[in-house]
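User: I've been trying to design a sequence by hand for this structure and keep getting stuck. Would you show me what you'd pick, starting by listing the structure so we're on the same page?

Assistant: Good idea, let's start from the same input. This is the structure you sent:
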């Protein structure tokens, strides 16, 4: 019941979005995003945005500390001037690692500020750890085998991959990749923001299970990060322990 309500709330939130929303395409760690938006929110109320704007060329100096560059990026992203946007754009092309991610977020914020000013309407920005493209979000989905100590055979692998590709295409999404491991299969796909993601992946399981009932009804779906094998195994063990505890409480 809680799971149904969770999916329903997400779907309702997406359905209420205006048409002029933007999706961050790049994969950026959630921790970096949270730090960026917290800092961006705090700096908007500062009176020294122009000071950062006037010193924006410091971004390209080697002797300037990383934290100072982050402040400049976040600050000038809140300045309604195309020069600020071009500066961030140039820096984003040259930077690497966390500064690259920070600059990418600043560039998106600067772009939306300019668009809001030109179009005279508020822009909506959607970001996830796995990014997306156009009006689609990227998802990492894990299909769990009924036999958790075995790899799917070649026929089963082809069936899961074909059914997933079919469902994704039918939902106007894009199939990217799929890997098969002992106990589960993982895939990267992109789906339109307003697609019914639960129904899409459940259809894959239902169709495959008509040919041998080899997939578990439960699955893992996330747009936060690509989960490692160890993270998936840990999550599966946690779920099993919870189910056992629930049974003992009955």
């Amino acid at each position: 019941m809680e799971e149904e309500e969770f999916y329903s709330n997400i779907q309702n939130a997406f359905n209420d979005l205006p048409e002029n929303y933007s999706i961050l395409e790049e994969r950026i760690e959630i921790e970096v995003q949270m730090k960026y938006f917290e800092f961006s929110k705090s700096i908007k109320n500062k009176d020294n945005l122009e000071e950062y704007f006037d010193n924006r060329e410091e971004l390209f100096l080697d002797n300037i500390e990383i934290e100072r560059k982050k402040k400049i990026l976040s600050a000038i992203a809140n300045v309604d001037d195309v020069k600020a946007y071009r500066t961030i754009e140039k820096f984003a092309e040259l930077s690497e690692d966390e500064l690259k991610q920070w600059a990418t977020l600043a560039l998106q914020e600067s772009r939306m500020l300019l668009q809001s000013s030109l179009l005279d309407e508020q822009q909506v920005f959607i970001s996830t750890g796995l990014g997306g493209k156009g009006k689609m979000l990227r998802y990492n989905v894990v299909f769990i085998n009924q036999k958790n100590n075995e790899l799917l055979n070649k026929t089963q692998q082809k069936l899961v991959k074909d059914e997933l590709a079919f469902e994704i295409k039918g939902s106007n999404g894009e199939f990217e990749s799929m890997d098969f491991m002992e106990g589960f299969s993982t895939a990267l796909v992109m789906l339109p923001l307003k697609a019914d993601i639960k129904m899409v992946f459940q259809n894959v399981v239902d169709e495959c299970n008509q040919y041998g009932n080899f997939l578990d009804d439960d699955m893992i779906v996330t747009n936060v990060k690509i989960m490692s094998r160890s993270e998936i195994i840990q999550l599966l063990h946690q779920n099993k322990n919870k189910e056992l505890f629930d049974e003992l409480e009955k």
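That's my pick for every position. To get oriented when you compare it with your attempt: The CA atoms of residues 171 and 195 lie 7 Å apart. Residues 244-250 have pLDDT under 50 and may be disordered.
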